[in-house]
Amino acid sequence: MHVSEADDGREIEVAVGETLELALPETSGTGFRWTLTSRTESILTLEKEYSADAVTAPGSGRMRCWRFRAIAPGKAMLELGYARPWEKQAPMRSFTVKLHIGRLP
């Protein structure tokens, strides 16, 4: 299942064993970066985090990507913040989806 910025605030159903791919836009060279701010390890495991750079010039767009696998049934909030890691203030932007993980019928 693919999730993007357009899914912010939505509820998503995922089956145990299913992969969830999340991609959010970043601007390179600004210091701002998406980071996970919620803990979901009991039902969702992070398999991979990476950047998909279209162009490497400062100020160009890129996608920050995560691949998760649903490992147990349950509910959780997947939350991320867009901030500069060295600044001690609230994130400039946030992203949240509510996950409902269930077993396959």
Describe the structure.
0% of the residues lie in helices and 58% in strands. With 105 residues, it is mostly beta strands. It starts with a strand and ends with a strand. The mean pLDDT is 89.
Question: How is this structure best summarized?
Answer:
The protein has no helices and 8 strands.
Largest sheet: 4 strands, mixed
Low-confidence stretches: none
Run of helices and strands: EEEEEEEE
Give the CA-based shape: elongated
Structural class: mainly beta
Please indicate the percent range of residues in DSSP E strands (runs of 2 or more).
Answer: over 45%
What's the β-strand tally?
Answer: 8
Please bin the fraction of helical residues.
under 10%
Distance between the termini: 18 Å
